[in-house]
Amino acid sequence: MPTATQDPKRRALGKGLESLLPQRPVNIAASAAAPVEVAGKPLEIGLDHIERNPWQTRSRFDEVQLAELAASITATGVVQPILVRPLIGGKYQLIAGERRLLASRKAGKTTIPAIVRQVPDEQVLEMTIVENLQRTDLNPMEQSRAYQRLSEVFHLTQEQMATRTGKDRASVANFLRLLRLPEGVQTKVETGELSFGHARALLALDSPELITSAAQKVLALSLSVRQTESYVQGLINPEAKEKKADKAAQQPEDPNVREAQDTLRRRLGLKVRIEDKKGKGKVIIEYSGLEDFDAIMTALGG
Question: What is the CATH code of the structural domain delimited by 32-118?
Fold first, then answer.
């Protein structure tokens, strides 16, 4: 069994952003750019000098968690520096740490500790996506769009994306499949009204109209993931659903009645159904020809 150091997925995840940073600084107009760190030490940078990351894959932030982080920063400061790169004109662009940046602003801070690295555009994009995918609080649609960008911009295969992000390849494939959902259903997944499990079940349907209609039914009835899977299978194969319902209806609840029904079936070699309600009911014997009818009459002594 491979160790953690031998497993490429674990290795990629363990290295985090450091595995994507260049070994040597990239010269991007350094003379006109903002100051860069010295000897790996973070700088205190004014919040009004930091621009948002244009390639950020996260579209929603939990306001409650953001407020909790702001309270923590007010009490103890920012424990982990953010990562930025210098821009021309004394400005910086955020690479990683947007929650810490937003929370610092909410906490009323004017500066924030930051590691400054000179990184080209393409590498910033990859670092941003990979860093976000290694987090656990992205919603399913944010993750699916992040994988899509890795595929489109860097032409990575699903296996390569899985290795870079420390995820399973099947998981990457399942997230990418969410992009097949109609836009309205994607919104429901993004807001948490439909879970990842619900979305996967709905993808078994073959048309956007059917998926949308089924999603509305799932939401209206508050169906669980398992119930949604059963409902979708019923839409795909209605005959199997009817047979299952008939079989359930034909199966008596009382074990003694069930045993009597099975005994009659074996003895007659015909379909027999006993409908019993508290000791009262009827015995229904189905026959498909005169020979079957004669067999019934013989068994009854007729």
Answer: 3.90.1530.10
